[in-house]
Amino acid sequence: MGRRQVTVLGVAGVVVVGAAAVGGRWALAGNTGSPAGTPTASIATSTAQVVRADVADRQLVGGTLSHAGSYNLIAPGGQGTLTRLPAAGTVVRRGQTAYEVNGDPVPLFYGARPPWRPFALGMTNGPDVRELERNLVALGYGSGVTVDRHFSAATYWAVRRWQHAAGLPVTGTVPLGQVAFLPGPLRIATHDAKVGSAVHGGAPIEHGTSSTRTVEAQLDPALAPTVKKKDKVLVTMPDGRDVKGKITNISAVAVNQTNNDEPGAPATPLVPITISLDHPGGGGLDQAQVQIAITSELHRHVLAVPILALLARPGGTYEVVVTEGGSAGANRRRVPVQPGLFDETAGVVEVEGPGLAEGQRVEVPDDRT
Question: Is 164 left (phi over 0), alpha (psi -120 to 50) or beta?
């Protein structure tokens, strides 16, 4: 895999690797039979360095910028009137107001379990107490609190400090409905209740996603077996930046995708994948289209030259022109090479050839002409 047949077309300036143009003047120049020291036509050249690099064979697929997770915020209890909702698109983090009832904020705490009972001195131990204490400590009100399953006197005073800072009634107890729990930050997508409506336990308030940006894509089933979790990818973002990432999930089930542009056409099975981004950056774009380069094969620390340095020769062989002496026209010699992986994203190709070494310079077309 990765060894590609190079097709040379009978038009000056084109050498094709698969579907990608990789040559320049080399398509005709390589078949002239002229000695290495003889200039070819009037095409200007420059030089590029032979390097040692990691060369990857990448498959390009389209994807959609999204956000991870799907969260529904359900009122945990209490009675009252919904008096405020954050705007759609708002990211609500720990300690911030998720919504408001009777004019009082209902802060968001992080936890996998929703609250099912009030918190107070004398309550039985439980995992919900541990969740409450973790949040009090994380918000800076947990002085003296031991994060465990027990609501202690230290927990009582920590609750009072938090309630005072949050503008809530200072009681040292947390009635059901005074705080909401979700596994992490909530990026609000849609409101499920309207301001002015009654709030009761079990009422849906709003839903959305996490604040973590991801990329969703769908692969042809023929490509899916060549990728696996933790494979590295390169994602071209809507603003043109290239961001590194990795595959975090590959569906075990193909999903039939209908082509809306061709009514009546049979559905195409595709395999959904999810990609996490190393440094997604800011910006509020959601559902924007991105391009994904999936690394299907990687050769580390190999000799590489620009793809444009390849010179096609009769019989399906290739060479590069090595130059010495500081200019493209001095001490030119042809070196036969065997191409390996083509990294079309980086514009380089893995090569092997007698006498070819790191640091040498090879001729390439001058892109200024």
Answer: alpha
Mean pLDDT of 248-269: 77
Q: What is the average pLDDT across 298-319?
A: 94
Query: What does each C-alpha distance from 206 to 30, 40, 41, 86 come to in angstroms?
Result: 66, 69, 69, 10
* Neighbour count for residue 14 (Cβ, 10 Å): 17
Strand pairing category for 104-110 and 180-182: parallel
Q: For residue 23, is pLDDT > 90?
A: no
Residue of 316, 367, 365 whose CA lies nearest to 339: 316
CA separation, residue 258 to residues 60, 124, 270, 289 (Å): 21, 54, 10, 18
The secondary structure element, H or E, covering residue 131 is helix 127-138
3-state DSSP assignment of residue 47? strand
Lowest mean pLDDT among 134-148, 226-240, 281-295: 281-295
Asked if pLDDT for residue 280 goes beyond 80, the answer is no
Q: What pLDDT does 37 receive?
A: 43
Centre a 10 Å sphere on the Cβ of residue 199 and count the other Cβ atoms it contains. Answer: 21
Alpha carbons within 13 angstroms on the beta-carbon side of residue 108 total: 25
CA distance 179 to 183: 13
Tokens of 307: 């793809």
